[in-house]
Amino acid sequence: MDQQNSKVEIVLHINDTLDEDGRTFLTTMLEKNEAIHSAEFCPLHHHLMLVQYDRKRVNSQEILQTIRDQDLYAQLIGPI
Questions:
Q1: Which SS3 state, helix, strand or coil, does residue 51 take?
Q2: Would the pLDDT of 2 be above 70?
Q3: Alpha-carbon distance 17 to 58, whole Å?
């Protein structure tokens, strides 16, 4: 399986209301993980986050736990 086939994108629902600084902090923090290719909030729905990652190196539950470790309540909606 090559790297392209190991890319997965998930949608997370962040229940907490984050301002722009909070959203920037969270996406930057996630992207420091080399297994995460991108993390971004939907422009019109700031409670939805898209995370693209390498499933060989990290899994969705680990990403979810990383967010919860920031004292945020989040739910995994599923893959895209």
A1: strand
A2: no
A3: 26
